[in-house]
Design brief:
single chain; alpha/beta; 53% helix
């Protein structure tokens, strides 16, 4: 079997194993956030940061949610990293944004954060702060043992079908799942361009 065939086979396996109930639970959290006038903050690192930027656009434009990603402001991100350290960049950004119990964090991550292994400590500290202020937490992650999955109010786990491809599959399926969210009739409020030109 060629690598392309293997990768596509694994992709199909993941689709078959994703839990629709977890997706519906996340959509319900997002709708409740919008209904109570809360904001959505999307946090991700690396490829997940790029996904966060794209997702902010979709949640604002399609789902009518006030939405932000701290990684969209490279000046603040690098200043905080330089002055305070990498681990605290998200939590301090959230403090500056006056995170409240009306708001929700969406974590896009392969592992979901792990302080003991020093993996994405910035996500862990942000999640701890969110829980402290009473904000809701949802996630799309590739590991059920990471910090996000253990504390989230709703979380979609991208199933591992090949341990050598956890990162590419997790980051690819973040996009699949958040597009499911914004397309969901319980969340979508604005038509997308190509569908509106039929």
């Amino acid at each position: 079997m060629s690598y392309a065939a293997q990768h596509l086979k694994e992709t199909a396996e993941i689709v078959a194993k994703l839990n629709p109930a977890d997706c519906e639970k996340c959509v319900a959290e997002l709708r409740a956030t919008r209904e109570r006038g809360g904001r959505l903050f999307i946090l991700g690192v690396g490829g997940s940061a790029a996904n966060a930027s794209h997702a902010v656009n979709d949640f604002r434009k399609i789902a009518g949610l006030e939405c932000y990603a701290p990684t969209d402001n490279v000046s603040e991100l690098t200043a905080r990293t330089n002055d305070e350290g990498w681990a605290s960049v998200f939590v301090e950004w959230l403090r500056g944004s006056r995170l409240t119990l009306k708001d929700t964090l969406l974590i896009l991550s392969v592992g979901g954060g792990n302080l003991e292994k020093n993996v994405s400590p910035n996500l862990v500290l942000a999640l701890q702060f969110a829980k402290q202020v009473g904000a809701r937490v949802i996630g799309i992650v590739g590991k059920d043992g990471g910090y996000t999955a253990t504390v989230a109010d709703a979380c979609v786990i991208v199933p591992t079908v090949n341990p050598n491809n956890v990162t590419p599959h997790s980051e690819a399926f973040q996009a699949v799942v958040w597009h499911l969210f914004v397309s969901h009739p319980d969340l979508k409020v604005n038509q997308t361009k190509w569908e509106s030109t039929r």
